[in-house]
Protein: DNA-binding transcriptional regulator OxyR
Amino acid sequence: MNLRDLEYLVALAEERHFRKAAEKCFVSQPTLSGQLRKLEDELGVLLMERTSRKVLFTPAGDAITAQARRVLAATKDLRDIARTFTEPMSGELHIGLIPTVGPYLLPHIIPALRQHFPELQIFLYEAQTQVLLKQLADGDLDCLILAQLDDMDNFGSIPLYDEPMLLALPAGDKWAERTEIGLEELKGEKLLMLEDGHCLRDQAMGFCFAAGIGEDSHFKGTSLETLRNMVAAGSGLTLIPKLAVTEHKEDSGVRYLSVTNPCPSRTITLLHRSHSVRRPCFNEMARVISRLLSELL
Structure:
């Protein structure tokens, strides 16, 4: 048994398809299949049922795969510990970001991170919050940049910046000539929202419901850009994080107002496993990002 065999097993558990698992591991399908059969022979147990259509893991296969994930994560930690003592700001760093942060934050921070940490190889992944949290817990990602939520106590976190949300409204709206609006003035209005699964949706709705603002149930957006286009078309109002507004201030068809009493906002944080040995690296990254965003926002 070797670590590569465990990687094949975990890849197959994730893909449930031999060809896709082999492609993920950069080996041929016969190589992956053959190594897994040898692993079964060595362990003396059937790990999976092979059919023409799909791969079904046995109870033993599920249990051994779960342990394989832990072994691979521990092995990665060993490598990270060694790197921390030699070159803490070098090597690979896998970062996950949510869709309402990544496209708007990355253009501002990636050039600075490359300049400050030239030996760091940064790999970026975008997904919704719950997917990223699982990938972080499983060791597939080193850290996340996302909005802080109440159910993240099992992870270590470093606050990066507080981001207000602005009200986006059509250029012809009755409030279009104003620069700010009190949240209470929106009572009775219905706002366009993102679809389920986006943490920004839950945060925005928290502020809206407290102020007596409803949700427009006729439409749910898949992205901030979809919401922005719906507003430009005159289909309603929505809340947009400030960083997503920065490059669109002069959008024809959309106006942005500051919201007061209270100002809807969210805290963007860098999340990591509580006992991660790469904490020195995260601290340095957070310092650079926080400084950049304090100037930008």
